[in-house]
From TrEMBL:
SUPFAM superfamilies tied to this protein: Nucleotide-diphospho-sugar transferases
Top-level taxon of origin: Bacteria
Protein name according to UniProt: Glycosyltransferase family 2 protein
Entry's transmembrane regions: none
Entry similarity comment: Belongs to the glycosyltransferase 2 family.
Entries under PANTHER family matching the protein: GALACTOFURANOSYLTRANSFERASE GLFT2, RHAMNOSYLTRANSFERASE WBBL
Length: 315
């Protein structure tokens, strides 16, 4: 049995369309858990009105106070693996529409690898449905978080250029399938993260445990993206703070000694320079540089204490 989980936070339109697409999937014994992660009462009420609550394949789980993306996913993983005893869990973003055969393809691919793999597929753009947004990242030369993306600029016409199964250096939980065997080794998402970086950490932990990250071209999904945080502004200081903090955490959690210091030093220099260029060219504001530098300052304290991330963001 497979359980699909997706989170809702004041986005009942996207979430309901995502849920209906999952329930239209064919070929597998599927149960969907929609986790409402602290939406307003009005939004939650409307969400329920848009969902087929009489469908036995659907569970709606309400969390009154938002506990962050990581917290919400972990609630879903607990329901899926511990309460429902699922063989697989599909983690997916709520601003997506999944192809009716995608879940079957993901499971078949996982079985090919003896269920020792996290599996994802083709991610298309929601508003330009024949263009690819993401399929995964390759393995760079340095090995220090060097994962070049296959799809360039997030809008690449699908001409069959990625129609072969591949082992990836990194994939994303826009949608990915976690077999029970992998979960038993890796466990839950790390609460060192609240938002951003959590999927990279999980994927790296899975690989360290002897699993693979596999891309199959036969599983497809359409993804809106950038709709949850900062009103979709990917250059906002709020997102810059979270992203910068996440990269530094991953550096020390997954590399040690000289490698960790080298990675942090190189990344800080390159990222600071990039943000400054964005400011000079009008692509970002000075507040983004402030957010980046503040993240570096706060990371130094975090690295001494390693506290649970409660979602604090000064922006």
């Amino acid at each position: 049995m497979i359980t699909a989980i997706t989170l809702n936070y004041n986005q009942n339109d996207y979430t309901s369309k995502c849920a209906l697409s999952v329930l239209e999937s064919v070929g597998e014994d599927i149960h969907l858990v929609v986790i409402d992660n602290g939406s307003t009462e009005d939004n939650f009420r409307e969400l329920k009105s848009l969902l087929p609550l009489d469908d036995s394949r659907l569970t709606v789980h309400r969390i009154v106070d938002n506990i962050g993306y990581v917290g919400g996913v972990n609630v879903g993983l607990k329901i899926a693996f511990e309460q429902r005893n699922s063989d697989y869990t599909l983690v997916m973003n709520n601003d997506t529409i999944i192809d009716s055969k995608a879940i079957t393809e993901l499971i078949q691919t996982a079985k090919k690898h003896d269920n020792k793999a996290i599996v994802s597929g083709k991610v298309y753009n929601y508003d330009e449905q024949d263009t690819l947004q993401f399929i995964g990242n390759g393995k760079g030369k340095t090995g220090l978080l060097d994962f070049p993306a296959f799809v360039k600029n997030r809008r690449e016409k699908d001409l069959g250029q990625y129609d072969q199964e591949m082992e990836m250096g990194m994939i994303d939980d826009i949608f990915w399938l976690i077999p029970k065997l992998v979960f038993d080794q890796v466990g839950y998402y790390s609460n060192y993260f609240f938002l951003y970086g959590e999927q990279n950490d999980y994927a790296l932990r899975a690989v360290k445990a002897g699993n693979k990250l596999i891309y199959t071209p036969n599983a497809k999904i359409w993804h809106k993206g950038k709709v949850t945080t900062a009103d979709g502004d990917s250059n906002s200081p709020k997102i810059e703070y979270w992203r910068s903090f996440a990269v530094m955490k991953i550096a020390v959690l997954h590399f040690s000694g000289a490698d960790s210091k080298k990675l942090l030093s190189q990344w800080k220099y390159k990222r600071t320079l990039k943000v400054m260029i964005w400011i000079l060219t009008g692509k970002s504001k000075f507040s983004s540089l402030k957010a980046h530098l503040l993240a570096i300052k706060h990371f130094k304290f975090w690295n001494k204490v390693r506290y649970v991330d409660n979602g604090y963001n000064p922006f």
